[in-house]
Design goal:
alpha/beta, Rossmann fold, N-(1-d-carboxylethyl)-l-norvaline Dehydrogenase, domain 2, 8 strands, about 10% strand, globular
């Protein structure tokens, strides 16, 4: 049994709250940073995050605060980063002075920064310097926040450039109902976690159009092919995409009723407008912005990603979901042997 640790979770959305609950349930002292003081006060008073994870009782080991510097400074053993990708740079710049040297940081954010096309670990390296890579890790996998808090058996992957960092995160998070596997591919783990949200929007649109399992299975399979092609071209290990951070997370997000990105797609398939759909959501659907980043990465890398292209058309170019589906089905026939065509191992992960 791991001794009690002092951990900060930065970001109190549903996923950050769930990870704080896992860590507190494992016996650790958790400081949870909330952007909104009213959310922090409610968590401390009611032992629940009614704003982002209503109905879930939180362990006593969580102390919430809206003071970012104080939260980061309280992290003697681990910082868990759960800030949406498009806001991570600004929040990290503010948090950096309080981050103690040598404290490991694990990112549980699933997205790519649109302006720079960097995963969250790349943002950390730009702000904190390349040496921070030796204490960075990434946590991803098929894990709806609500089910995690309810105690459903869950397994995720943690990836790091240094094996001891991944093993430390594994040790801190592991419980009888939350199993953590390690790997050495942070880039692939982040690519899988980010791009599955784009495919989930497409999967939701297919459902919104009224199509069933045949169409969904094709979309998931070909979506995995696209994610793998891009990941391998950027230097990731193709095996990563057959694991929890790839296929596992993709299947969950494309088929599960708790997926925010899938819900966005369903509404689009039924004729909804993106601005109105997002306006009704309290939490961030990372796949919308990630679609922009993935589309640009595909163009920059010369990787064929037709599903990403069509989701981009629907979100940002005025195409309907039905037009996008017709474009996908009308593409020239080809061999399935070209699963990884357009990819190639790059020099680094």
């Amino acid at each position: 049994m791991t001794s009690s640790a002092h951990v900060a979770v930065i970001g109190a959305g549903s996923w950050g709250t769930a990870l704080a609950a896992v860590l507190a349930g494992a016996g650790h002292r958790v400081t949870l940073w909330c952007r909104e003081p009213t959310v922090a006060d409610a968590i401390n008073r009611e032992r629940a995050n009614t704003a982002f994870l209503p109905g879930a009782a939180l362990p006593e080991g969580i102390r919430a605060t809206a003071d970012l510097a104080a939260a980061v400074a309280a992290a003697r053993d681990l910082v868990v980063w759960v800030v949406p990708s498009q806001f991570s740079r600004r929040v990290l710049a503010e948090a950096a002075p309080a981050l103690a040297a040598g404290v490991p940081v694990v990112s549980a954010t699933k997205g790519i920064e649109v302006e720079t096309l960097l995963p969250v670990t790349g943002v950390f390296e730009e702000i904190l310097g390349p040496g921070v890579r030796d204490r960075l890790a990434v946590l991803s996998g098929p894990s709806f926040a609500r089910e995690v808090v309810q105690g459903a058996p869950t397994a995720v992957a943690v990836a790091a450039w240094q094996a001891e960092v991944a093993e430390r995160v594994q040790s801190l998070f592991g419980t009888s109902m939350f199993r953590v596997y390690t790997n050495d591919d942070p880039l692939g783990t982040q690519i899988g976690g980010a791009l599955k949200n784009v495919v989930a929007i497409a999967a939701g649109a297919v459902e919104g159009l009224g199509f069933g399992s045949n169409t969904q299975s094709v979309l998931i399979t070909r979506g995995l092919a696209e994610i793998t092609r891009l990941g391998v071209r950027l230097g990731a290990n193709p095996a990563t995409f057959a694991g929890l951070a790839g296929m596992g997370d993709l299947v969950l997000t494309c088929t599960g009723g708790l997926s925010r990105n899938r819900q966005v797609g369903i509404a689009l398939g039924r004729g909804g407008k993106l601005e109105a759909i997002l306006g009704e959501m309290r939490m961030v659907a990372e796949g919308v912005k990630t679609t922009q980043a993935a589309w640009r990465l595909a163009q920059k890398s010369g990787v064929e990603m037709p599903i990403v292209e069509q989701v981009h058309r629907v979100l940002f170019e005025g195409a309907t979901a039905r037009e996008a589906l017709s474009a996908l089905m009308g593409r020239p026939q080809r061999s399935e042997d070209a699963f990884l065509s357009g990819g190639g191992h790059g020099p680094q992960r």
